Amino acid sequence: HFRELNFAKLSRVFPQIEANIDKLGEIQEYRYQDKKLAAISLVHRSSFVYWPTDKSGIFSNERLEFLGDAFLSFFIASEAMIEHKSLQEGDLSRLRAALVGTENLALKSRDLGIGDCLLVGKAEMNSNPQRRDNVLADAFEAVTAALLLDAGEEKAHTWLLKVFAEDLKTGQEILLKFDSKSKLQQWTQGIIGVPPVYRTIGTEGTPKETFFIVAAFIGSTEIGRATAASKREASKK
Q1: What's the pTM?
Q2: Alpha-carbon gap, residue 85 to 224, rounded angstroms
Q3: Can you name the residues that pair with 202 across neighbouring β-strands?
Q4: What's the confidence (pLDDT) of residue 120?
Q5: How far apart, in whole angstroms, are the C-alpha atoms of residue 24 and residue 147?
Q6: For the chain, where are the E strands, in sequence order?
Q7: Identified catalytic residue from 65, 133, 141, 233
Q8: Gap between the Cα atoms of 126 and 119, Å rounded
Q9: Region 101-116: what's the mean pLDDT?
Q10: From the CB of residue 101, how many other CB atoms can be counted at a distance below 10 Å?
Q11: 118-146: per-residue pLDDT in tens?
Q12: What is d(CA 80, CA 165) in angstroms, rounded to the nearest whole number?
């Protein structure tokens, strides 16, 4: 399926694609054998706007993102078990969630320069910070999958181990900062014996982009609210 990419068609809109693939190879310390895999991992869906009538031979990185997400979760789970032999299942799950979460993967993409390689539509460049974080996190998963498919599991594992080395070592510290919802629940239950309840109380934004307003309640009393591109992120904030 990926080999059906029309590279010439993609290059006409994004003449920098070859340079971006080379840049990705430098980031991952690997020279791609199948450049189409690397190219697709860098194509965001927003770029489809440049082919309004004929999208044949053009693919976004969403399928690669799906595979990269699964492999990344497996990698973090196995390495966390090796690095932190005393952690039980609950803490291991929370550590994995923290390391593969949107915020951390977006940070990795920025630090590595993956965002500079992406092929996106003009509107995406001006999107809100939360939206950009989602795009960057998804891109990290997609380029992970591209490396996995082209170079093999060992190379992908080696690269990820280098990228996440510090995170895995400081797992205990990350756990202390993570899962603010659980901390709030423990705090309220310890004081008054009931957990907070989260309710979506409204939305805002444009027809193309919706933001959810989520509030936390203790009984009928609102104790805080936040807005984000997803209900989960809003409740976490």
Answers
A1: 0.77
A2: 37
A3: 213
A4: 92
A5: 10
A6: 197-206, 209-218, 221-228
A7: 141
A8: 14
A9: 92
A10: 16
A11: 999 877 766 655 568 889 999 999 999 99
A12: 10
